[in-house]
Amino acid sequence: MKRHLYFIVCACALVMHFCPVQGQTFKLAVTPGEVGPVIQRYRSKYPDCNLLLQCKPGAWYLDSTIVITASMTNGKGYTVLEGAAGKTVISGGQKIQPNWETWKNGIFRAAVDVPYEFDQLYIDGQQQVRARYPNYDATARHYHGAAADAISKERVASWKHPEGGYIHALHRAEWGGYHYRITGVNADSTLQLEGGYQNNRQMGMHKSIRFVENIQEELDTAQEWFYDKANKYLYYKPAPGTNLKGAAVVVSRHKELIVLKGNAAHPVKNFTVKDIRFTQCAATFMDTREPLLRSDWAIYRGGVILMDGTRNCAVKNCDFNNNGGNAVFLSNYNRRDTISDNYIHDIGGNGICFVGNPDAVRSPLFEYGQRQDFSSIDTARGPKNSHYPDSCAAIDNLIHDIGQIEKQVAGVQISMSANILVRHNSIYNLPRSGINVNEGTWGGHIIEYNDVFNTVLETGDHGSFNSWGRDRWWYPDRKEMDSLAALYPWLVGQDAVSPTILRYNRFRCDHGWDIDLDDGSSNYEIYSNVCLHGGLKLREGFNRKVSNNIIINNSFHPHVWFKNSGDVFVHNIVMTGYQPIGIHYWGKEIDHNYFPDLTSLNVAQIFTDRNSSYGDPQFSNPGKGDYHVNSQAALRTGFRNFDQHQFGVTAARLKKIAQQPVFPELTIATTEQTISWDWKNGTFKNIETLGERSATGMPDNEGVLVVKAPQPAFGLKDGDVILQVGNKKITQLNELKAVVDQINSNSKLTVFRGQRAITL
């Protein structure tokens, strides 16, 4: 009943944005700069009036951000700010008029005094490239070009004044990225830096995936630019044939264009923005510094449109492109807001974010390794206050090619929120997950009919859908967590109050999992989804029911489950054998599934699947993405067909341009052979798979996995990764074999355990 009421509330909210409230209605033509004063003038005279503000056609460059406060919407009426569809553009930039002169090497320059920082340059509407090394390469996988020597001493020595330059680097374990501002150079040609706080799992930058920008000496190819702030000169190297005389030149200026600012007691109400294109906002990567509880994320609470303390508000049918940060951000208290029918692409940050305030979380922790004693935990159920998004929706949005600058991003990001509806979105071409649920607080989300693919393109150990659940009950030390979960199993549901539902989605991830429920993710119902490549992973957590899914060319990946986890995996179709890692307990029920062959079924039946079957599921037309099952044997397992023609956007203007995933050729299941080595009744092997890397938390594949600890154990435990024996670094099995005779009770062993290196 509660679920049905939620759908009714969302539907009513959509209607409310566009249905007149009783009261006088004024239809007014305005420029963006007039929006605030016009609202104040009319609402002071007619507090309950409806305002339909029609923003005039044209490109508008704001002197300041449009700020709507609660006092401007505290009557009974609604406010709609709408553009002339396709003709109204609000820019976050500022026009400048450089007087270009020839400088050298095909580079032009102009004396330009810009009194604020800018990080983007547009020539005739096209974004240009800030001087960088390596040069921009549209075909490169990472950062449009990355190089290990980007900050080598030799290269740094060639720069005269690199202060103000930036380093962008992937996280060492490929869990997002970092950004640093160069503040100086040391005598040994190493750099002085500030920044590096943009990722909540501090492990340092990647040793090779990095680039530098805003360095004058790196201005060496067409379409690059550099602004010398000290001497007030703008340098630009145009492409051959470009006529700079009369070219329109714009530089970025504002981070936000519209801010709806209220609070829980006095929210901005009944305000809709529609039919406007927003572009050319400044980048915010150096503002991304707030950690989101114990996830891998840090966040900047801002966007082209920021909604902070709102109720019954909407952003509809707008375009967001060529912006440096997030598109739409709902922060703190927000109720019954809807973000729908928007086109979000080619931006630096996230698509749509729903992020609550940590002051609503009971006993919050903010870094992976932090812990607290049970005696100090607030064990009450649910949030402490209302400072979080609840019953809001992201519906029918086309989101692609985001995360152009920041790499810890998502098409839809949910953190410290409740009852968020994510429906009929098409999300693709991005560096990390398409949809990310940051932690268990507070569940109740419904994620359905989305089409999410070409994800995790620049990072690793992630999925098209990703979640964490490092809530109050979760501990980084597994032994401690096992003990707490056994003593207080009810604590798991104190944050993940209501189940999160994933249903009727299509996912494809070629660099991770299609569905990845990572550390602690609990209280999920996952059914009737199509997984096209990466399979479905459940790391340790509780009360996950996975049923009626189709997993193409892959399988089920259970990792390091708890005893009495309550997990269920039934009525699913898999196309390879299960791929468990560190599994000693098999949940509540694993049965009635359909395997590709007798071999994989027999392996599963050692522990599970007594009533499962095998064979060809007889898909109707897999080459066209129709995985309707025709096999009667498969249907007898309890699998039920579901509609596979409703994934992604439905709005006509978006559907005609939205891409679809590549539908893979079906492959015959094979069992991969792995090489292991036995020593003193223990078993050791190289780290070979993404699953092994994920289960151990390793940043790379360098080390030897202890599948089974030897006897005597020398301090080793199952699941350890041996990194060093004495002073000898161990990266693969052969290196361990070469020094194994040196191991004794006095040996100094360095292993990776609990996602950190320790010395035994």
Automatic annotation (TrEMBL):
Single GO molecular function: lyase activity
Keywords (A to Z) from UniProt: Lyase, Signal
Keyword Signal applies: yes
Cell wall biogenesis/degradation recorded as keyword: no
Entry coiled-coil feature ranges: none
Stretch forming the signal peptide: 1-23
Domain Right handed beta helix residue range list: 269-357
Domain of life: Bacteria
Protein name: Parallel beta helix pectate lyase-like protein
Source species: Chitinophaga dinghuensis
Organism placement in taxonomy: Bacteria, Pseudomonadati, Bacteroidota, Chitinophagia, Chitinophagales
